[in-house]
């Protein structure tokens, strides 16, 4: 009798745990990272860096978070318990809009810029958004590449994807169905067409996923064998091109030119941080070409922001955008460098130069006796991070430019740190101020006693003791 009682209790407990698990819904996990140039910005603008160890493989990515991969870094995200894998290529920005629950079966993600590959598990349902398009997925293997105003390409190797413009209520406007062996480019006519082996290789070569990390799929949705066989070879067995292949010499020349162009663009993106696309300013759409190089010399780091925002002609300065009427590329020449106007010209040149500097850093907190960070940054920290850790003031960059300041001095027996999110703001305008003062009562010993405080004039004040 006692045995039956324990069996009944165990059964009820198992059922209860199963119900709790079912209610938990989906979670998105940082499954695999290749490289170390990865940042995850949480909905409250707190930034976590893989390089610093503040985020690691196995950590959960919450709804509303933005994942950013830099040069030379790609990551794999995994939906659990579903099993769907989403791989982010280098130089990609990806946001988690929503995860499925028992009440809502749909997962939603936004590809802000860059490229992703998704390999969906059995029964997966999710949507991938860009600012221009929507892809409705019901189990498939595909890649999507997006650059604002320039590129929105969907390429499907297995399954089908409903693809179209982003309509009212985030619905799919003018939808088409893109099947296995087809691609569609939103900005070059929304039609589904067969892709070539060269197109497949370009789409999949930098987003390969090893077979052992693939999710379980239905027989007719099995993943393309892109890891053991090159994508171009795999494609040859998956579909038949709609046109006769080009002569060998012509095809080889075309492929060589394509690879050269791709290599040049990769270099521009990786080394110079180049972005080409569009931007909306005051309800007007402009084209943009931006270079954002970063320089490191020892403990000194600096990042530049060199934009050309134009209406019609990249090479015609008369069509370039002038914020508040200021020609930010004139460096005082529009004021005139003469005896009467040299002072206004000098001021204009200083402003134009300051707009080209994204950030300047020297040293690191808790490591160097002196450190300073100025500009748009993603890693403002006070002390060991109890009150503020990896706070980002660049979440709205470049539409909003902030000049933040974080600096500190360690004199051995005592030290201090201070920060503000924007030097251009007053106390009543979304200003954040923070500081820390400490002393070391025992010489040459790291134990420190002090006080830290952070105040947000837009929300509330908060402070912590030693």
How would you portray this structure in words?
This protein has 466 residues and is α+β, with helices and mostly antiparallel strands. The chain has helices at 2-24, 197-204, 231-238, 248-272, 342-354; strands at residues 27-34, 38-41, 47-49, 60-61, 66-69, 74-80, 85-88, 92-98, 107-119, 126-129, 133-137, 141-147, 151-158, 160-166, 172-179, 182-185, 193-194, 275-281, 284-291, 294-297, 300-304, 306-310, 357-362, 370-375, 404-410, 414-420, 432-439, 449-456, 461-464. Among the domains are: 26-243, Jelly Rolls, CATH 2.60.120; 357-464, no CATH class. The protein has five helices and 29 strands. Helix 2 (197-204) packs across helix 3 (231-238). Residues 1-24, 221-246 and 460-466 have low confidence and may be disordered.
């Amino acid at each position: 009798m006692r045995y039956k009682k324990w069996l009944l209790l165990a059964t009820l407990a198992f059922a209860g745990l199963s119900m709790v698990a079912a209610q938990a819904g989906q979670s998105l996990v940082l499954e695999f990272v290749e490289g170390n140039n990865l940042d995850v910005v949480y909905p409250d603008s707190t930034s976590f860096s893989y390089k610093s160890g503040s985020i690691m493989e196995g950590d959960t990515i919450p709804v509303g978070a933005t994942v950013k991969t830099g040069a030379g870094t790609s990551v794999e995200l995994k939906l659990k318990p579903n099993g769907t894998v989403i791989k982010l290529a280098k130089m990609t920005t990806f946001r988690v809009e929503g995860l499925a629950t028992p009440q809502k079966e749909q997962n939603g993600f936004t590809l802000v810029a860059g490229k992703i590959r998704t390999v969906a598990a059995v029964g997966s349902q999710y949507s991938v958004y860009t600012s221009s398009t929507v892809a409705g997925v019901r189990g498939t293997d595909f890649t999507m590449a997006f650059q604002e105003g320039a590129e929105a390409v969907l390429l499907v190797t297995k399954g089908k994807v409903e693809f179209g413009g982003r309509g009212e209520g985030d619905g799919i406007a003018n939808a088409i169905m893109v099947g296995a062996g087809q691609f569609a480019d939103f900005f070059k006519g929304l039609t589904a067409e067969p892709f070539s082996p060269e197109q497949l290789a370009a789409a999949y070569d930098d987003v390969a996923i090893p077979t052992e990390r693939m999710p379980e799929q239905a027989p007719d949705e099995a993943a393309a064998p892109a890891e053991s066989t090159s994508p171009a070879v795999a494609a040859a067995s998956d579909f038949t091109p709609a046109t006769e292949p080009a002569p060998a010499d012509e095809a080889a020349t075309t492929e060589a030119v394509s690879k050269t162009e791709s290599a040049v663009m990769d270099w521009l993106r990786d080394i110079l941080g180049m972005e080409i696309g569009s931007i909306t300013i005051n309800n007007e759409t402009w084209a943009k070409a931006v270079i954002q190089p970063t320089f490191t010399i020892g403990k000194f780091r600096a990042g530049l922001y060199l934009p050309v925002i134009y209406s019609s002609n990249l090479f015609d300065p008369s069509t370039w955008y002038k914020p508040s009427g200021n020609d930010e590329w004139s460096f005082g020449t529009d004021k005139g460098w003469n005896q009467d106007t040299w002072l206004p010209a000098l001021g204009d040149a200083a402003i134009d130069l300051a707009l080209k500097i994204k950030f300047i850093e020297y040293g690191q907190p808790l490591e160097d006796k002196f450190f300073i960070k100025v500009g748009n940054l993603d890693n403002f920290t006070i002390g060991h991070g109890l009150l503020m850790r990896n706070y980002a003031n660049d979440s709205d960059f470049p539409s909003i430019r902030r000049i933040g300041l974080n600096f500190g001095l360690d004199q051995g027996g005592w030290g201090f740190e201070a920060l503000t999110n924007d030097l251009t703001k007053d106390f009543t305008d979304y200003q954040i101020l923070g500081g820390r003062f400490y002393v070391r009562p025992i010489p040459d010993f790291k134990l420190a006693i002090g006080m830290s405080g952070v105040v947000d004039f837009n929300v509330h004040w908060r402070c912590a003791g030693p």
